[in-house]
C-alpha cells in the first residue's frame, strides 16, 4: 500500500483493530504519555484492545499481531514511538497516513451502517 | 486462581521454542516482542489459560505459515527477479533451439551431398543419349536396409527405366507431384518416405533431377537417394544433447535466481523515530 492513496478495499480485521487501538490511544493519551507526542501502545495492550467488542472483537495472537504490525510499518501506517519502559517492549503509534486510512475505513463502515439502518436491517436504537 | 510459576516458565520455554520456527529475519526483529507479549498474556488474570492456549496455538499455526510465505514472496517473488529469470529462460530456450536446429540442418543438408553429384552425372549421361540400362550401374540395393547411395532413371511419365534400388522387390517411385515440381523447376531435394511409420518407416534423402530431351534422347528424370537412418540417428543425438543443455541452463538460471533472491532479499527494518 503506497502512501498517498487511501485503499479502496476494506482493511483486514487485524489491521483495522490495530489502527483503532492506536487511534484510541492517540485520543485518550493513555497509558504512556511522553513529553512530546503520545508514546504509543505495546503489543499486548493492542491485543487486549482488539479483544473488546468496541475494539473490533478480534481474537489475535502475538504472531498475527506482529506480522500485521510489520506489514503496517512497511506500508507506513504505524511507526515505533521509541518510548519504552522495558527493553523487551516496543511501543507503536499511528502515522498521519495511518490516521487517514483509518478515517477512510470508518467512513466506509459508517456509510454501510447508515444504509443498513435506512433499510431497517439494524433495529432502531441499536449501536452504530 | 493462582498460577504456578513453573507452569508459566514451562509455557514460556515452549513458546520461545516455537518462536524459533519463524523466519530468521522476522524472529530477529520481533522475537523478543513475541515472547514478551505472550508473557503479558500469561500474566493477565482476566484471560484464562483455557482460552489463551488454543488461541496461541491457532495463531502460531497461521502466522508461521503466513510469515514463511511472506518471506518466500519477498525473497523470490519480486517482479524484477522473476522478470530477469523469465528473460534468461527465454534466451536459454532460443539458444537450445539453435543448438539443435543448426547442427540438424547441417546434417540434413550434408546428407544430400553424394546424391547431388550422382543425379547430375546420371542426368548428363542420359542427355548424351546413353541408354538408361547402360548409364545405371547394375545393382540391387535394398533401400530399407542399406545405407549405400543409389540411382533410378524414370521416363517422362515417371515410369522406372533402370534402377539400382529395390524396396520389397520392386523399384520404388516418389509421388507424382515430385516429378511435376521437377518438370517446372529442374531439381528437387527432399526427404522421401516410401514406407511410413516412425519405427519401421523408410526415409530417403533424395535428389530428383530433370533429364532434358536432346536429339534422340527422350526426356525423363533421375533420382539419387540414400537411406537417412544414420543421419536421423545423429540428429536424434543432437536433439538429446540440446535438450540436456536446455535443462542444464534452466537449472543454472533457477539456482542463480534463487541464490540472488536470497542474498538480495529485503531486510526487515525497524524504523524508530
Q: How much is the radius of gyration of chain B in Å?
A: 38 Å
Unreliable runs of chain A: 32-36
Would you report the number of β strands of chain B? Answer: 7
Identify the overall geometry of chain B. Answer: rod-shaped
Query: Helical content of chain B, roughly?
Result: 55-70%
Principal-axis shape of chain A:
globular
Structure description:
The complex is a heterodimer of chains A (128) and B (273). By secondary structure, chain A is mainly alpha-helical. Chain A has helices spanning 13-28, 43-51, 62-74, 96-118; strands at residues 41-42, 78-80, 91-94. Chain A has a three-stranded antiparallel β-sheet. In chain A, α1 (13-28) packs across α2 (43-51) and α1 (13-28) packs across α4 (96-118). The radius of gyration of chain A is 15 Å and the shape is globular. The two termini of chain A are 28 Å apart. Mean pLDDT of chain A is 83; it is low at 32-36. With 273 residues, chain B is of the alpha+beta class. Helices cover 58% and strands 15% of the residues of chain B. Chain B contains eight helices and seven strands. Chain B has helices at 5-19, 24-43, 49-76, 79-110, 113-127, 132-135, 176-185, 229-263; strands at residues 141-142, 150-155, 160-163, 165-166, 187-195, 202-211, 220-227. In chain B, the strands form two sheets. Chain B has a five-stranded antiparallel β-sheet, sandwiched between helices. In chain B, strands 1-4 form a two-stranded parallel ribbon. In chain B, α4 packs antiparallel against α8 (229-263). The radius of gyration of chain B is 38 Å and the shape is rod-shaped. The mean pLDDT of chain B is 89. The chains are: A mainly alpha (128), B alpha+beta (273). The A-B interface holds A 42-44, 47-48, 59-67, 69-71, 73, 79-82, 86-90 and B 22, 26, 29-30, 32-38, 40-41, 44, 55-56, 58-60, 62-64, 66-67, 70, 268, 270-273.
